[in-house]
Design goal:
Elements (H helix, E strand, L loop, with lengths): L3 H25 L8 H11 L6 H13 L6 H19 L9 E2 L2 E2 L1 H5 L1 H20 L6 H15 L5 H11 L6 H11 L1 H14 L4 H28 L2 H4 L5 H4 L5 H5 L1 H18 L8 H12 L3
Antiparallel strand pairs: 1-2
Length: 301
């Protein structure tokens, strides 16, 4: 595992990246004074409520593992946060997970109402693809590949929406490894894997580099979800910034429900090590990706 000094270093790195990503997001999302002001207030309320920005950070780190200076990558990377935030707004709605707390503050629909929350999520989704279409420093072929990557990871066949459907339909069913796999490889894993792949595509990765980074993304995505499930059991609502214990209360199919807490922790560590192994063809340019994998498994919130 990483040393305390290394953890401090990666935390400093993540903090600086969050600041950079937020600056780019601020440029793309209409300000709250722009009409219709109500929808822009709702979009910005959820988008700038905090968050680790892990998905865009993964995209940037992946791009920099392929190329020393992938100019403009932060603009492509920020689309992942637009999609992620849209999914959180919709997940919190009464018709889905019905949550009152997200990132330590009332959820979007609690502040702006269900209708405006739905539209805020829709608006962030559509904005993501506008941003990709307007990237100034990549050719048309790579733009199309980036659009396809983000759309597939967000969609129904093996993507985020498909995973959400499996999650809803799996409630109150007997937890099994097969059901768990069908939910989380799509619901959480697909967008995390796409984050790494989009960074690689943006930077012009070779097929070999893309394959290695895709494998890393699969392991990191699984580790992220395992740790999320464990924290839902062990952490407080205050530390998580969302309602703790919701998975068990709603009889969700989670890693602790299928494997137990101790085995889940072991599995997360196995995925961390596998993520490191996937990067074996890269030199120290991929060190940030290795540190991010460590951070994902070691985080407490």
């Amino acid at each position: 595992m990483t040393t305390k000094a290394a953890v401090a270093t990666v935390q400093d790195y993540l903090f600086s990246q969050v600041s950079e990503i937020d600056s780019v997001l601020d440029r793309w999302v209409p300000h709250a004074s722009v009409e219709p002001a109500s929808i822009h207030r709702a979009m910005r309320y959820s988008l700038f409520a905090g968050g680790k920005r892990i998905r865009p950070i993964l995209a940037i780190a992946a791009a920099r593992s392929v190329s020393d200076s992938p100019d403009g990558i932060e603009h492509a990377a920020c689309t992942l946060e637009l999609i992620h935030t849209y999914s959180l707004i919709h997940d919190d709605l009464p018709a889905l997970d019905n949550d009152d707390l997200r990132r330590g503050r009332p959820t979007c629909h609690k502040v702006f109402g269900d209708a405006m929350a739905i539209l805020a999520g829709d608006s962030l989704l559509t904005l993501a693809f506008e941003v990709l279409s307007r990237l100034p420093l990549v050719d048309a072929e790579r733009k199309i590949r980036l659009v396809e990557e983000l759309a597939r990871a967000s969609g129904t066949v093996g993507g985020m929406i498909g995973g959400q459907v499996n999650d809803i339909e799996g409630e109150k069913r007997t937890p099994t490894a097969h059901l768990l796999d069908s939910i989380h490889k799509a619901k959480t894993g697909a967008l995390l894997r796409a984050s790494v792949r989009m960074g690689a595509i943006y930077a012009g990765a070779s097929e070999e580099e893309l394959a290695a980074l895709s494998e890393y993304g699969e392991h990191v995505g699984l580790a992220f979800q395992i740790v999320d499930d464990v924290l839902d059991v062990e952490a407080s609502s205050e530390s998580l910034g969302k309602t703790a214990g919701k998975d068990e209360a709603q009889q969700k199919i989670t890693f602790p429900a299928v494997y137990g807490l101790e085995r889940s922790r072991v599995m997360a560590e196995e995925e961390r090590l596998a993520a490191h192994t996937a990067l074996r063809m890269f030199d120290d340019r991929a060190d940030r990706l290795r540190q991010i994998a460590d951070f994902i498994v070691q985080r407490k919130a």
